[in-house]
């Protein structure tokens, strides 16, 4: 059921900034699920204009019908600049910055980017308010229509198994830079052939940093050794997000090329547990052969060198790839270890 503005107003009529979080989070989830624009009504307690808007404008046609095009939520002017108000919806935190007025209507993209503001002057008469809301929604639809068409074309291409067509359609969807298309683009990663992955992987985080990173991590978990994995891990490394540490460590040696990238990424995070983890990797990649023509020898040497490099970066120590030296050093220094300044 759509979260109506009237219902939100009843829920949010009183309370401290942090207590707005449940309704904001609900509106955020609904807007993203339904891919509908968000309508934020900025109001003020005991303000006659706000009271009139709630009683004489919102419940009256054509405004009442037009409101159904949006996911609507109310925020009091006094709470707008409080960071606690936006803790549940970090994508919306920019709403707490800059000048604000009440009454005021803000139209947001479901992923948080502000699209338009409607000042009080447009909201005094139901007919004019309805026209303003209609125009805001028409602008939304004018942008979204071509995106839906290109996404539908990509869906057909994925079902056709035509690799060249997949790439062509994926590029069209990517060009829109629309966050809600990420699940469809992520589906391209599971298709056979590395070219479609090379097309999509570098773009996911650029479309949306958070959702793009999560899409990459899901695919890497499912398809850890698939061609294109190292490109994906380089994107994870570039994200420089400490939440990725568990994923970076999980089965880190299952692919030699990817292991180098993942070990390098671990060196970027000052997590104490990564030090013994990396030390313990050294004997696991010791070469069983010294034949320089054996590709595994070169791969293991590259991994060991990266382990040594990351350990040096984390600890300030330069003990090379000697596992015994690192083990002894950590045994004596580990309990009181502090990262170098």
Question: What would you say this structure looks like, in words?
Answer:
The protein is elongated and about 85 Å long. The protein has 16 helices and four strands. A four-stranded mixed beta sheet has the order 2-1-3-4. Strand 3 (104-108) and strand 4 form a beta hairpin. The model is unreliable at 1-15 (pLDDT under 50). By secondary structure, it is an alpha+beta fold. The protein has helices spanning 5-11, 21-34, 48-57, 63-66, 77-80, 126-160, 163-176, 182-188, 194-207, 209-222, 229-239, 245-249, 256-266, 274-281, 295-315, 323-333, and strands at 38-43, 71-76, 104-108, 114-118.
Describe how the helices and strands are arranged.
Blueprint (H helix, E strand, L loop, with lengths): L4 H7 L9 H14 L3 E6 L4 H10 L5 H4 L4 E6 H4 L23 E5 L5 E5 L7 H35 L2 H14 L5 H7 L5 H14 L1 H14 L6 H11 L5 H5 L6 H11 L7 H8 L13 H21 L7 H11 L8
Search tags:
four-stranded mixed sheet, 4 strands, alpha+beta, 341 residues
Order of helices and strands: HHEHHEHEEHHHHHHHHHHH
Uncertain parts: 1-15
**Structure annotation, total helices:** 16
> What class do helices, strands and sheet pairing give?
alpha+beta
Number of strands: 4
Per the principal axes of the C-alpha atoms, what is the gross shape?
elongated
**Share of helix among residues?**
55-70%
Q: How much of the sequence is in beta strands?
A: 5-15%
What is the end-to-end distance?
54 Å
Q: Radius of gyration from the CA trace?
A: 26 Å
User: What is the residue-mean pLDDT, rounded to a whole number?
Assistant: 90
Strand order of the largest sheet: 2-1-3-4
For the report, how would you describe the main beta sheet?
A: 4 strands, mixed
């Amino acid at each position: 059921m759509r979260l109506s503005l009237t219902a939100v107003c009843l829920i949010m009529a009183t309370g401290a900034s942090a207590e707005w979080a449940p309704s904001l989070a609900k509106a955020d989830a609904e807007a993203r699920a339904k891919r509908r624009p968000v309508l934020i009504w900025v109001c003020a307690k005991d303000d006659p204009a706000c009271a009139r808007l709630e009683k004489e404008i919102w419940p009256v046609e054509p405004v009442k019908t037009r409101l159904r095009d949006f996911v609507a939520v109310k925020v009091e002017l006094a709470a707008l600049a409080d960071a606690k108000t936006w803790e549940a919806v970090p994508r919306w935190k920019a709403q707490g910055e800059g000048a604000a007025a009440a009454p005021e209507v803000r139209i947001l993209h479901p992923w948080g980017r502000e699209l338009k503001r409607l000042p009080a002057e447009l909201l005094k008469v139901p007919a004019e308010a309805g026209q303003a809301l209609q125009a805001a929604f028409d602008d939304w639809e004018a942008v979204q229509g071509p995106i839906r068409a290109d996404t539908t074309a990509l869906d057909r291409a994925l079902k056709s198994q035509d690799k060249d067509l997949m790439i062509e359609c994926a590029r069209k969807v990517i060009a829109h830079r629309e966050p809600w298309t990420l699940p469809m683009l992520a589906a391209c990663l599971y298709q056979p052939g590395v070219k479609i992955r090379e097309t999509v992987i570098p773009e996911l985080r650029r479309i949306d940093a958070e959702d793009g990173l999560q899409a990459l991590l899901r695919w890497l978990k499912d398809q850890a050794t698939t061609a294109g994995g190292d490109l994906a891990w380089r994107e994870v490394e570039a994200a420089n997000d400490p939440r990725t540490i568990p994923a970076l460590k999980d089965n880190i040696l299952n692919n030699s090329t990817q292991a180098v990238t993942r070990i390098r990424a671990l060196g970027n995070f000052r997590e104490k547990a990564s030090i013994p983890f990396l030390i313990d990797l050294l004997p696991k990649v010791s070469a069983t052969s010294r034949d320089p023509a054996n590709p595994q020898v070169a791969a293991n040497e590259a991994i060991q060198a990266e382990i040594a490099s990351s350990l040096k970066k984390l600890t300030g120590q330069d003990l090379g790839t000697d596992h015994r030296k690192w083990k002894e050093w950590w045994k004596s220094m580990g309990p009181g270890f502090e990262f170098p300044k």
